[in-house]
User: What shape does this take?
Amino acid sequence: MFPQVESYIREAEKNFDKISERRKHLLAQISQYVAHAIKTGQKAELIYICTHNSRRSHFGQIWARTAAAYYGFENVSTYSGGTEATAFHPNAILATEKVGFRIEKDNNPSNPKYSVHFQESGDVILCFSKKYDAPANPQQGFCAIMTCTEADGACPYVPGAVARISTPYEDPKAFDNTDQQDAKYSERCKQIATETLYAFSLVKNFI
Assistant: This one.
């Protein structure tokens, strides 16, 4: 794992005690899903869902895969989707790069695919905007994690999901083109990182 990413994770772990008990209860449901998949010899597949699949859901996808690797859980795949497709937003990409991830972009002008790396070789996280039920995402047996209230309301039922967990986050989009833009994107990235890492740190307790 890249040293900068690992250092960021270690700092995030120090903030686990700042997560509210209500949030911890919700996050533990993610832990239980992953642990059950591991115990039963299945792949744990998580889809992070928000309206446009441009910011928060990509943070979730990236951090869940990174957390799985950090805590040593191999059979975990993570995805993201929206109720509509747009593009992985440049501000969210910048916040991810600041953490220490390395990101490569293809040549699609409207909705590029990004290869996100947290280590020199091995796992690559493929990020691009799509609907949550797109063919690139699993269709059955996955855990749906709702990262915004809009998608939560628009998708009261997610076909194929064996678990649906709502952990909404405030949208950094509200601060686009303001003096607070970079700080708010970094803040949201850190919050999602901390809570996702917390969820994966509990998995061993349920195996």
